[in-house]
Structures are given as structure tokens and as C-alpha cells.
């Protein structure tokens, strides 16, 4: 047993007062005359033992009353196993409340978030008036990085609402540690109140500070079945005006029961475009492909919805995409225009081909073309090579077809600049392509099934390339001896397609072969690397868009009916990057505005990891911590105040001491009142 205020123990010296009263009775003696003294002696013998017992009992209860009264002021307690000598310094308490969507689940007394707020109040009430508090939520707001007194803490606690942001245990503890370690000379305690879904845990142990005690308050909700929209994507990256679209929707069953015929609905610009029904087995995922058409050019806003109760926060997925009216391509010719290139793209009205001579390139407009085709590289200059390299590094796609000439010096200079394989000679012996990488995106979807004994292109006059150690090439077609016929290289943020043969019948039969159309079309489509359909709140800190040039006094704004955000804009090699950090709090679709003109539409969704309603056990939580200063509370319906006090100070005994002191004072009164009366009655009976 220890004492919170041991200085009060000096007051035990007052116990000597009843002893002195017992030893020195200062009452004046009175003479009583009796006719027969023998009766007095008999009475005195009968009552002397009773008076002695009474005085000893009075002495005992008075001493015990004083002792327990002094002990009550000294605040005795039985220390807990986690007690330390610094337990009674000023306390700095950080209380984290999980306000993610899973905390909306119902309990017997409301929802989990309301219970978490009630538990936080109980924890705060277990501390002294001079202690300080930090309130932390998933929002990680700047105003939560300061200490509050009790009244301000309760006021801030009442304002906590559900948020779409999800945090891991490590992120929460890091945030709490940042503030607590700044408070020197104080006892530091971090409380985490949550349902502790398994997605909050990390594979490795947490990095916590040994000076901070971590206490986890685990709340429990009734198990709930839940079907969520996990993700959605288009089969084709290219969206053409009026063409058919195929949207793949992935549903996930986060419960242990099979979900039958879950209705799925696709809305585009608030108009229903497709419906479906998906059966999802327990603890698994299923896909459904929904088709629709009739889209006009421009930015389109889409929504996928399902019907699922009682958990509904993940039943809607926002997405946005751009429908192109056309696609512009640039063909740079070292001589005359190539009729085969013009013919293949003229067959599809979606493509618009601009032909330019190698000596008349407008380098400032290169970034406006997703794909550039270099038809002949025998006359390219070093300056043009550098400009094409910059174009590719910034995200463009470049197809290089050599010229029908034995002079490969200009091609060698270009490939060295780009960082691809380097030509070493020309070949004149007829060879036939013997390998096609059908798994590459360039050929994906071209064939319903891979044909056998297919007739492959043949080369008559071609360039032999030497493998470069720094080239990250992916072979698309190969000649015998693993000689590249068509290869793809990643250069910066873009791609280079390097051919061994020129675009002439004299060099190869590729221009009249069935492979020519899919190669030219797919390379154009793959160059359209549009932005993602949506971003995740709390996870994606920025979004990428095509390069936008802003005057010095102009800004970009993300805006919808409920909110307006001004992102931080930075120019990158591949375009413009918008840093949104934690400014987007609510799922939905936001217009990106430059002044009053629409630049793009961005969609934001809540984190789908929150949909898995699986919870960590107490053992799982304790295994996350490497030290021994972590404890897990599962309070049930019991209040937390006394539990926290017992952990902070051990089992407190001052109330028991005060009660015992009052009991002994009452015993003294009873002894004086009733014991004396019974003694007088016995004396009267003896006479």
C-alpha cells in the first residue's frame, strides 16, 4: 500500500489525545452520603468492571476514528502493476476517437461513434482538474494538435462527426506521439477508442515511444452483413463519342453469407445507362460487365449504385471520364508522306493525322499530340532528337520507323539520345517474324483466341539492333536469333516503339499485312493515358491532369454544390499535379475550374478497405506493440472512470478509510448514549 499525500501521516500524532483523556480523567469527585456504606461498596464492585470496559471501548473507537480520518486525507492506494513513481505528476492525455464509417454501426445504446464519445468523457473525468487533453480523430485537423482543458475537451468532443477518412494504428500513434513528446515533465498517456478493424493493423510491430502508455478501448458492435462496390474500370481506355462502352464493376462480399442477385445500376449524367444483378459468394468478389452507349463528347459523370442494408456507406461509387470527339496524330516525314499510314488512319474518322516534314517541325506543339510517328530517321538532327526525347519523357509516345538506306548514323544518334537499343548494321537476307508477344497490351483484345500457324510479317531489308544494357525494352515481334523487329521502351513517362523495318513494301510486307492495322491503332489508343476514373479520400494526396499553363494571378479550383477547394498546383514532366492533401472530405464529383471554364471533372470515393467489417482480437492488438505499456480495455456496459483510475493510481482506499472513520465516530456516540443508560438501569436494579 502507498499514499498519495504521505505528509498527512504526521497527523497520526493526534491519536495521543484520546489516550491522555483516558489516563487523566479531570472530572471533580462528589461526595455522596449513604446511611449504609455496605450497599455502596457492593454497587461499586458490580459496576467497576463495566466502566473499565466502556472506557476501553471508547478509547479504541476514538483512536480508530482519528487514524482512519488521517488515512483518508493521506489517500492510501494499492498500486497496480503499471504504477510508477511519476504516476501523480500532471497528466497529458491524448484521446483518439475513430470516426470512420464503420463507427456508424448500431449498438444497444445508439451507434459506435456515440458510445466512443461517451467513453472519452468517462476517461477525461477520471483525471484531475489541472490535467490536459488532446482530442484526435481520423481527420487529423490542425486544431486537434493542441492541448485542451476539460471543458474545452468536452465541447470539442460533442462536435465530432463521421468522416470518410481511414487511418491505421501506426498513423494514429505517430500523430499522438508528435504532440505528447513535446510535453516535458508530464505523465503521458494515449487512449485509442475504436472498433479496431483488421485493416487498421500492420504486418510489422508498431513503432511506439516507451515514455507513452497506450491504452486501447475496444468497442463491439453486432455483426452485420455487408456488400460493397470495390472498384470499377472500363475495358477500353479510349472513349469515343457515340461508341459502345463496357464498364466492369467489382462487388465484394464482406460477410460470411452468400449474397444472391445484388442489383447493380449505372448512371451517367443522372441518366440510367445499365442495370445488372450479381451473386457474390461469402468472403469473395465477383465482376459484372455492363454495356451502354450514346455518350456525347466531353466530360461525363458516372455513378455505380447497389442496394444493400444496413451498411450503406459503400453502396455508391463515383467515376468520371472524358469522351473524345477525335484524336490528333503527328507524322514526321523525312521525305514524302507515307500512303500506308494515311490510309490506315483515314479508315477511322476518330483519327486526325497531321503530316509535317522533318525540317518544319513546330516543337512547341508536340505536347498536344499523344502519338508521333517518325517516318524515316536518316536526316534527323541532334536538336530534333533532343526535342523528341523531351516529348517522350513528358509522357508522349513515339514510333520510329527507319529509312530504306544503309546509312544508319542518324538513327544511331537518335536511339542513343532516347536510350533504346542501338543499330549496328543492316540486314538484306529475307527473314520472317517467328515470335509475337500476344500478352502485350498492343495485341491484347485483337484476337479472340491466339491463332495457330498464323502468317507472320516478313522482312526483306531491316536494321540489326544491338542490345543496350540501359534499355528497358519489351519485345513485341522478333526475327530469328531473337533479333528485335518491333520493340517497346519506357523512356521517362512515355514510350518509344522502335521498328527494324521501314514503312515500305521494299523493306517488309508489314504495311500490307493484317498485323499493321492493330499495331497502328493500338499504339495510338495506348498513348491516350487518361487520368484514373476516381481518387480515394484520405489515400490519394494528389491527382494528375494534362499540363495546364496558369498566369501568375490565376488559380485552379475544385468545386461542387457543397464544397470548394483550392489545390496546390505543381508542374511535372508528365503534366500538372494537383495536391489536395486532406481538403476533400466528402465523396462526390468535383469540377476543376480555371476561372469560369471547365478543365476536368474529378471523382472522389471513400476508402473501400473500411467495408471489411472484420475486427482484431485483443491478442492481435497486443501483438502490434513491442513494449509492455499497452493495455486493451473491453468495457462492455461498465463505466470506464473507475477502471482508468485503478490503472492510473491502483485501487484507491481513501473512501473506505473515510467510511470507517464515520463508523467509529457513530460507535462512540452509541457507546456514550446506550451503554451508560444500561449501566444506570443495572445499578438501580442492584439497589
Which key features would you list for this structure?
single chain, 687 residues, alpha/beta, eight-stranded mixed β-sheet, elongated
Overall description:
With 687 residues, this protein is α/β, with parallel strands linked by helices. Helix 7 (382-393) runs parallel beside helix 8 (409-418).
Short description:
By secondary structure, the protein is an alpha/beta fold. It starts with a strand and ends with a helix.
Overall radius of gyration = 42 Å
Total helical segments: 12
Mean pLDDT: 86
Strand content: 25-35%
* Tally of strands: 37
Structural class: alpha/beta
Task: Set down the secondary structure blueprint.
Blueprint: E1 2-3, H1 16-23, H2 37-74, E2 76-78, E3 91-97, E4 106-107, E5 110-111, H3 112-125, E6 132-136, H4 150-158, H5 169-180, E7 187-194, E8 212-218, E9 227-234, E10 245-253, E11 259-268, E12 271-280, E13 285-292, E14 298-306, E15 316-323, E16 327-333, H6 339-346, E17 351-357, E18 371-375, H7 382-393, E19 397-401, H8 409-418, E20 422-427, E21 431-432, E22 435-436, E23 458-459, E24 462-466, E25 473-479, E26 483-491, E27 494-499, H9 516-526, E28 535-536, E29 542-545, E30 556-559, E31 564-565, E32 568-571, E33 576-579, E34 588-594, E35 597-605, H10 618-623, E36 630-633, H11 641-649, E37 651-652, H12 654-686
Parallel strand pairs: 3-6, 3-7, 7-8, 8-36, 16-17, 16-18, 18-19, 19-27, 28-35
Antiparallel strand pairs: 1-2, 2-37, 4-5, 9-10, 10-13, 11-12, 11-14, 14-15, 20-24, 21-23, 22-25, 25-26, 26-27, 29-33, 30-31, 30-34, 32-33, 34-35
Helix pairs in contact: 1-2, 2-12, 3-4, 7-8
Amino acid at each position: 500500500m502507498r499514499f498519495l499525500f504521505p505528509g498527512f501521516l504526521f497527523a497520526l500524532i493526534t491519536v495521543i489525545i484520546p489516550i491522555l483523556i483516558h489516563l487523566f480523567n479531570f472530572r471533580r469527585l462528589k461526595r455522596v452520603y449513604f446511611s449504609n456504606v455496605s450497599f455502596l461498596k457492593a454497587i461499586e464492585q458490580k459496576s467497576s468492571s463495566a466502566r473499565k470496559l466502556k472506557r476501553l471501548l471508547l478509547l479504541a473507537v476514538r483512536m480508530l476514528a482519528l487514524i482512519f480520518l488521517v488515512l483518508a486525507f493521506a489517500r492510501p492506494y494499492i498500486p497496480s502493476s503499471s504504477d510508477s513513481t511519476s504516476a501523480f505528476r500532471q497528466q497529458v492525455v491524448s484521446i483518439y476517437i475513430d470516426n470512420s464509417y464503420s463507427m456508424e454501426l448500431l449498438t444497444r445504446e445508439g451507434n459506435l461513434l456515440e458510445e466512443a464519445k461517451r467513453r472519452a468523457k468517462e476517461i477525461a473525468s477520471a483525471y484531475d482538474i489541472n490535467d490536459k487533453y488532446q482530442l484526435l480523430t481520423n481527420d487529423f485537423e490542425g486544431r486537434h494538435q493542441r492541448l485542451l482543458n476539460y471543458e474545452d475537451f468536452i465541447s470539442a468532443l460533442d462536435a465530432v462527426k463521421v468522416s470518410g477518412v481511414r487511418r491505421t494504428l501506426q498513423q494514429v500513434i505517430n500523430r499522438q506521439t508528435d504532440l505528447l513528446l513535446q510535453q516535458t515533465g508530464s505523465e503521458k498517456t494515449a487512449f485509442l477508442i475504436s472498433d479496431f478493424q483488421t485493416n487498421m493493423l500492420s504486418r510489422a510491430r508498431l513503432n511506439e515511444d516507451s515514455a507513452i502508455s497506450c491504452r486501447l478501448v475496444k468497442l463491439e458492435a453486432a455483426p452485420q452483413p455487408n456488400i460493397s462496390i470495390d472498384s470499377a474500370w472500363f475495358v477500353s481506355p479510349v472513349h469515343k463519342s457515340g461508341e459502345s462502352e463496357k464498364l466492369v464493376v467489382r462487388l465484394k462480399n464482406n460477410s460470411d453469407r452468400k449474397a444472391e442477385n445484388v442489383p447493380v445500376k449505372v448512371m451517367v449524367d443522372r441518366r440510367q445507362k445499365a442495370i445488372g444483378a450479381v451473386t457474390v459468394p461469402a468472403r469473395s468478389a465477383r465482376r459484372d460487365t455492363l454495356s451502354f452507349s450514346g455518350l456525347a463528347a466531353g466530360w461525363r459523370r458516372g455513378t455505380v449504385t447497389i442496394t444493400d442494408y444496413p451498411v450503406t456507406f459503400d453502396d455508391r461509387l463515383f467515376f468520371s471520364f472524358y469522351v473524345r470527339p477525335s484524336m490528333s496524330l503527328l507524322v514526321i516525314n523525312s521525305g514524302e508522306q507515307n500512303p500506308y499510314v494515311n490510309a490506315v488512319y483515314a479508315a477511322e474518322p476518330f483519327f486526325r493525322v497531321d503530316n509535317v516534314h522533318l525540317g518544319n517541325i513546330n516543337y512547341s506543339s508536340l505536347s498536344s499530340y499523344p502519338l508521333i510517328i517518325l517516318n524515316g530517321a536518316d536526316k534527323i538532327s541532334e536538336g530534333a532528337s533532343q526535342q523528341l526525347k523531351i516529348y517522350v519523357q513528358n509522357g508522349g509516345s513515339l514510333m520510329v520507323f527507319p529509312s530504306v538506306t544503309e546509312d544508319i548514323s542518324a538513327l544511331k544518334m537518335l536511339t542513343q539520345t532516347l536510350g533504346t537499343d542501338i543499330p549496328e548494321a543492316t540486314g538484306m537476307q529475307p527473314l520472317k517474324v517467328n515470335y509475337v508477344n500476344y500478352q502485350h497490351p498492343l495485341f491484347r483484345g485483337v484476337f479472340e483466341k491466339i491463332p495457330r500457324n498464323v502468317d507472320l510479317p516478313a522482312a526483306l531489308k531491316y536494321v540489326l539492333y544491338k542490345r543496350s544494357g540501359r534499355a528497358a525494352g519489351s519485345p513485341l515481334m522478333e526475327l530469328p536469333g531473337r533479333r528485335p523487329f518491333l520493340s517497346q521502351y519506357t523512356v521517362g513517362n512515355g514510350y518509344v516503339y522502335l521498328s527494324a523495318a521501314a514503312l515500305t513494301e521494299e523493306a517488309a510486307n508489314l504495311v500490307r499485312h493484317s498485323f499493321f492495322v492493330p499495331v497502328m491503332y493500338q499504339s495510338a489508343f495506348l498513348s491516350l493515358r487518361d487520368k484514373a476514373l476516381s481518387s480515394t479520400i484520405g489515400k490519394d494526396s494528389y491527382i494528375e491532369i494534362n499540363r495546364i499553363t496558369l498566369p501568375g494571378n490565376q488559380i485552379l479550383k475544385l468545386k461542387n454544390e457543397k464544397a470548394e477547394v483550392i489545390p496546390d498546383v505543381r508542374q511535372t514532366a508528365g503534366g500538372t499535379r494537383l495536391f489536395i492533401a486532406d481538403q476533400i472530405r466528402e465523396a462526390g464529383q468535383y469540377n476543376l475550374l480555371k476561372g469560369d471554364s471547365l478543365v476536368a471533372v474529378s471523382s472522389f470515393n471513400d476508402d473501400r478497405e473500411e467495408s471489411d467489417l472484420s475486427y482484431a482480437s485483443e491478442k492481435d492488438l497486443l501483438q502490434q506493440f513491442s513494449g509492455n505499456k499497452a493495455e486493451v480495455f473491453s468495457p462492455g456496459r461498465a463505466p470506464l472512470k473507475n477502471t482508468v483510475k485503478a490503472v492510473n493510481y491502483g485501487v484507491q482506499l481513501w473512501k473506505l478509510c473515510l467510511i470507517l472513520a464515520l463508523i467509529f465516530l457513530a460507535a462512540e456516540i452509541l457507546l456514550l448514549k446506550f451503554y451508560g443508560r444500561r449501566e444506570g438501569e443495572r445499578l438501580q436494579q442492584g439497589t
